[in-house]
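Bench notes, afternoon.
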Amino acid sequence: MVESDGGLVAEVMRLHGHSAQPESAQVVAVLSAMTEVVKGEQLTVTPTSLFAAAMSALEKPETQAAPGVCLAVCTVLGFTLPRVPNATLRLKFVGCAAIIIGLLERHRSDAQLCRAALLCLSQLLAALDPGHWPSAAAPWAALLSFVLDNRPKVRKRAHSGVIEVLASLQATPALAPACDAISRAASSVLPGPEAAARAAAASSNKQRSAAEAAISKAVADTLHLLGLLKGCVALMTAASTKVVVDLLFKLYPLKQHLLSRHATEVLTALCNAPSGGDKGGAGASHLSPATLAEILQVVLDAEDQLWDRKDADAVLSLTRLVEAGFLRLAKADPKLCASRLPRAFHVLVPQLCATQEGVRFGTSQCLRNLIVDCIDSDMVASAATGGSGKKQSPLVSCVAAVEAAMGPRYQESWPLVMPVVGTLLERIGELSTDGASSAAMTSGLLVGIGNILAGAQDADDDRALLDASSASASAAASAAEDALGRAMRSLGPEAVLAALPLNLDSAGTGGKGGGGGADGAAPRTWLLPLLRRHVSRARLGHWVDTLLPLARTLAARSQAASIAGQAQLSQALHVLELQLWHCLPGFASWAGDLPACYGRVVKDVAGAFQNREDLRPAVGQALRRMYLQVRRMLKSTGHTELIGPGEPLGTAADDDEGDEYGGGGGGGGARGGGDQEDELHAVPPEGYGEEEALATHAALQSFTRNWLVLMFKVFLEQAPHERGPTAAVISAVASLADAPTMAQLFRAVITKFIKIGTDAAAPVPPSDMITDGGLNPTERRCAFLELALATASGLQDGGLLSLLKAAKPGLADKEPAVQKKAYKVLAHLCEHRPDFVRSHLGDVLPSVIVGSDGALSASRRYRLRVVQPLVLMLTSPGCPELPPLRKMGSGADGADSDEDEDVDAGMDEGGGSAEVDDIVVGLVSEIVLCVKEANTKTRAVAYGLLVALAHGMEDADPQSDHIEADADGMEADDTLPPMAGGLHRLFSMVLAGLVSVTPHMQSAAVMALARLLYEFAGQLQSNVPRLLPPVLMLLRTKSREVVKSVLGFVKVCAMRMPVEMLTVQLVPILEGLLLWADDSKNKFKLKIRVVVERLARRCGFDAVAAAMPPSDSKLLTHIRKQHNRKERKRADSKAGSDDEDEDGGGDARSQRSGATGLTGRSSMGKTARPSEWGHSKVFGSDGGPDSDDGTRAAGGSRASGAGGRKGAASEAGAGGWAAKGKGRADRDGGNGPRLADGGADGDPINLLDAGASRQLSRAAARAGQRGGGEGARRGDVGEGDGGYRRDGAGKYVIGEDEEELRRPGRKGAKGGKRGRDGDDGGYASDDSDFDDLRDVADLSYAMRKEGAKSVQIGRSLANGSVGGKSVGGKSAGGKSMGGRSEGGKSAGGRSTDSAAGGRKGPVKHSGDRFKPKKSNTGGDTKGKAAVEPYAYWQFDRKMLNRRKSKQATASKSLTTVVRAAKAGAARGAKARRGGAGAGGGGKRQRTATAE
């Protein structure tokens, strides 16, 4: 095509050239014909020539008579006109407009032709010269005639044309006549509904249908015109806009919701448009501020007519109109906005108690926006001066309106009212310059908040009725606390305490909650925690003059009460004193008057820190906050000479030590008050600048030495576990101390440290032996070394060198505590003083290399923190040259190992690149080996450092820098790019561990590779084809440790790799995995099945089947069947969404093969998104991602055998997962009976369900009526008693079964010892496969592979039982479940002796009495029991474990209980409706495996 057409032909062909529609074919044909005509005239195909050809064609009568041809020509003309110069269009406007109008009149019934013609007409009008607008009167009228068309597309095209024309006429004389035409149309259309309604009312019954038709037409025309006005009202002139607005207000009295809503939307569009002064040009409204204010006044005053409280949509539309109007009015005329704003508040505030939640929320949001954008400093100043004369100031009126919303009428809406109150208080505080006036103005709001919080406190104290309103009350109290906190931050605590005094002078003397104040008011003790959390940038003098004397008074009264024997009162007063002291950090934060007040309070604060252990946290946090804030400010202003060269301990860079230096209940730690509190004190307030920081620094500096001496003494007196917060305070104070002071104090500390070591080595203890810091020399050395580390933030390089020399001997010390502290010092230097370490690398690196073999487990974590910065330093481009380190191999005892001699030989010639690489590889290998550490924290640190090291090396040497060079160097047959960049360098180092001679190192390398691949799947996925063959080769080794790691690596590949790459590698993966498919030891068999199942879900069953050997095809067939069954259940069950797998639930899967249809990055598994690494999930013995340390993920605790770790527990475990024909058995051998079919797939019923509760209540009532007979009084055990005995009073006697097992005479008690939780029942051992049963498709398949016929009679997978018998044989007390023991029935694998056995005792809870007599009958039978069949979810003591993973595992089973209620209740209801004979249901389907 010719390029001179401006792309017209190409655009037409792109839109219509590939379409099969006849209209598109006609357009292409017409365009081709027009192009040929232009070329035939020896002209160039340009937009102008095509425009001339199109108009020539439309002039012909034969063309006008053919609608199809006209449509095609107009379509081409629509593409041409925007490319034609305006001068040409203006010259031909009259003729072209006449032709288009003729087409519209002739073919008005053709919608497509009308749309195309209207587009052409609007483009012609937009190009017209505004000075010749009279010639456009007819075309403009023709365009306006279609704005009411009943055809939506035609009408929409006309609306767009009108808006386009008006936008082109902005700031021209032609705009007024064009808008007048629209206003005239509005004047004739908008009154139509009212006129038609009046006519219908006056018409007779015979004319009723015609009148209703007229009303419908009038309403439709009005709605069509309102649709036009929404887009063009902002473009119209002020005069026309006023006419339209007057007409719009006349629509509201009709009480037609649709008309009112659309009219409001037109007014909202008018208010939302920018004013002419803001932007000007197209889109700028010509509405004046006075007219806008008049519109808003009419809307607000016509409350009865416009604001229909029952119509939520109408109210919300008007609310948005008021918000938009006032926001624009505030920008155009702030004074006029201020005068009208009170009326808006008084109209909007009552909507906060509307019945519709949406109205309340929208009104709350609107009021907050009005406060922020409409209240300015002039309004606040006017309110502070009292307004003008007797008239109330606008802001005071707004405050009064909001204050009314805190009354009882709005109680349910307080959660939405409080944000409005908080925003208003914050705005007044920000703009106010007179604290007294702002306090007086907002006192009513503060008192209202106080009343709400006091009421919430009383409700908590009284423990009022726990109903649905309690949640609302809690939300209101939380919102009120937030509002009061915002007031404290903006108005200041003095204004808040003036309105809400603490009233603690007489606390505890009487009245509710500890008494009242002197004026009879109750003490507001609930204010103290709020002061601690929210006060910042306040006056320290207020705490010194008001709160400190009050704290002293409370302390004296507490002591007096203690002497008088009133312990409870003394404790309450002591707590209040502590709370007052804990307010000190907030008042000291960014305090502007700190230089003036510090000298007055420092003596009292120092005395409290020295003598009051309970006050040290508050004082320490205040000191640390003051010093750190001044340090931050001086650093930002360039006064680095006044601050220390190091970072204080416990700062954000010290995340690994956050618990140690940030704990202590807020005692000086960076995290003492929580993250929100830290954010509050992180940013300096306005007005706090360089001058204030220098003055504060001078005030602090005068007492710095005294503070350090005092804190050194306190530090040495404290217990080791209490020194962390004090060390953080010392580090912060030392960071602002002058160099001579720090040098002197540090010299004294190091001297004592050295003397302690000398005295310890002396044969006779000297007379001047140092005894500070501990009870023995080891504790003293640790204390002084920790103290020296705390001063490192203020030390220069000379002091750091002394600290390094003092710590180096400790690296080889045999005492774990000393070595740990030494590595801690070295880690701090490497992380926070890298320049010093770089300049002294020759001193640091040998000690680290030599200490590798002697590093103890206690110090391993800190040693790893040393390794990472050293590796980054050695691999950086600016790495210093290493000096000869000839004698670095000598250890503490002077013996040199062969490895050390090798290192010496490699480093004799200096630090060449090869030698540096060897050192780096050795250090990285140490990190890799630590991923196999038994210590959980050390292992977690190793993984974290490995990832951090990878990020650091990638940042230092990005892969992108090598892409271009690699692309140039690749040969034509290369299929994979070479490995380059820092990340790939680290990856290669770890990869080298695969050829290690020890299986331990090989296993660690595989685990490290898996961790890197998990974190950097996108960057490393190209290396997987190279990596998989050597890793899979390790599956042919005999080391089970290595095989276990490889299985975890393959699982990571299945989780993170793209489907396309994973599919290509299926053959070698399956070939290696299936080598161990028949080995059940260490759970390899089930682990492999889990991986195969994951591969099938990711890549599709067909792809896996093609790669799997025929001998193992049965496994995949079984997995496919169970997968399809699970998918069907999920589709049929509403609760199926909760059962989705962690990586397969959300993929778009093929209906045929199950493979994902994603490509590229999106083809990675759902787990490829950033997620938390879990070592136990990948390499643990559980074999699945949903369990931890062998605990069950789907309910119940482990069953413990009757007489040891193995035996009947295996049966209980198997029965707990899936019992064919019986439901879930008692997992704990007696944890309580369960309904065999209580829920879907045998899940227990939800006891929180209302229907279940009613059922159990009725059953309990019937049991109570029958349970008071002679047998209960006698203490006998009856069928209706649930297996429990009763005492003489008729109460149940519940025995502790574990104590019963520990009784000396108990058969099989093994001396009364119970198995450990980790090995309870034997099924948590490494040789057991029970934990993996949740991850396989079906249990029975695994049981058949083990040679068992069913769960009940199957051989224990734990390969053992009590007495050497399997589950099918005799248990400790008799036969196993399914038979009878010698002493009685077996309950869940534990036998219980009856009276016939010669011994009485508590009978275990069992659900056997609910079991039907016929084996092929499903469900439960009541039988002779006095209660209905029931089940329960037993609490797990792991819920009390502090480990989050244990808590999560223990609580997962609750999800099963709750989820089962819905499915079970629905099934039961359906069965009852279907008839009594439908129960049982024949053979029950096997339960699916747990999640």
